[in-house]
Amino acid sequence: MAERKSAKNYIRIKYLKYKIMDTTKKIGIIAAIIIVASLSIYGVSGESKYNNANRRTSQYIPKAVDFAGESTPLNIADVRERFERELLVNANLDASTLLIIKRANRVFPIIEPILKNYGVPDDFKYLAVIESGLVNAVSPAGARGVWQFMPLTAKERGMEVNDFVDERYHLEKSTEAACKYLLDAKSKFGSWTLAAASYNGGMSGVNKQIDLQQVSNYYDLLLNDETSRYVFRILALKEIMKAPDKFGFIVTPEELYQNIPTRKLEIDSTINDLASFAKTQGINYKILKIHNPWLRDKKLLNVAKKKYIIEIPTEGY
Description:
By secondary structure, the protein is mainly α. The chain has 12 helices and 4 strands; from the N terminus they run ααββααααααααβααβ.
């Protein structure tokens, strides 16, 4: 009997030790998860970068907004609600909006002087933001580049689009083409806001609804869902990007994407092998394409001896 009790006690002690060890492991794992999650949310310093959980709507919504100097009538119930929707949604798309803020530091300095030179309001840089997120995006319909031009529209606006060269991917030239379109739209509608809406809905599409509904203000028009949201998305990104800290996007200058200095090389002949050409310039094929995304093939066919400007980075690689 004494031996049997001793055996039972031994088993009980082992079992308790096992349970204690198992619980300790569990606690350790849970603690590790909490620490990792806290670091992800708060950073090493403990400062929350993207903690949007306990904010009131009043912290987001400004008292007045405008697009290109044209006031947005937030006193109209549906207008205010549509604006709030886009502002709240984009303020809480942490990764997407953060990347846009970082890219803008690289892209806006190129877009802004071109808009100014054409007399197009600076607010239209935010149109490029909602079109593409400031990358050379490709839409399911075939629109391409930062300004999202369709092939026919691009050609109509003076851009070259073929198997070897696609200037929809050329930021300066596509920005100039966008300016030309927007100036025509402003001339037609007499409003920058309607000009912006027509960039999405087309001039004829917006004009048809103006005639049908007998109103001449974007905020009075009943449009399809995409065009109806379009200007409000521009307004939302404008508010967020003007004051990112207010919306929880705390980004240091070092974290922003920078423009890499380049030298410009004029070419007026065919380049049969862009990879070999890149090596002669001290870079590789990948870097050549990153800085000249309008080059669409492995070679540049130039029978007409047209002059092209190729950018070669001078540092950063």
